[in-house]
Amino acid sequence: MATRRHDPERRQRIIQAALEVITDSGMAACTHRSVAARADVPLGSMTYHFDSREALLEEAFGLLSAYMLDKWREQLEGVDSPAQACAAIVDWVCGDQPMAADTLIPMMELYVYAARNAPARRLIGDWAAQVQQTLGQYFEPATVRALDAVIEGITLHNIYSGGTIARAEVEAIVARISAGGELPG
């Protein structure tokens, strides 16, 4: 009888490999076989850890969401005023993080997947709620929703336009939206 190899990190490696496959080849290429090959695990490990491709995708997109939320929270560390929050938003939108291929491509795949998948929609909704909760420390609710939409919208625009909106323009947009929407201090 063969001995079972103890590999406590296998499940996490599989999830990370799924994100890599999505980033490199798209969600359609994210099969049990392609992910097993990327993670360097036996194909049988896939069905041992995940009862379906959808379960694997949900875990992979959950990992992406957690990573992006951690980066967002880091972006807002030390922010204690609406003006600083606006500067952090501009830095985020104009910085490298949301435009990095290893986050940008799977984020876009997640949005498309969520159009027809309720758990993925909930994941995006939870993600947006947490972003809005952090912004809610500085702005009233309508302003928070508008700023969140601007963050997502400018990121999408930059992807599809092949360029980026100039920092000065992003600063002006964020300033216009946030004007008058600050919480009383």
From TrEMBL:
- Please, which domain of life does this record's source organism belong to? Bacteria
Q: Does the keyword Acyltransferase apply?
A: no
Fetch the Pfam families from UniProt. Answer: TetR_C_31, TetR_N
Looking up InterPro entries in the UniProt record yields: Homeodomain-like_sf, HTH-type_TetR-like_transc_reg, HTH_TetR, TetR_C_31
Swiss-Prot/TrEMBL keywords? DNA-binding
Q: Name one GO molecular function term.
A: transcription cis-regulatory region binding
Every HTH tetR-type domain range: 8-68
Give the PROSITE patterns listed for this entry.
HTH_TETR_2 (PS50977)
State the name under which the record lists this protein.
Answer: HTH tetR-type domain-containing protein
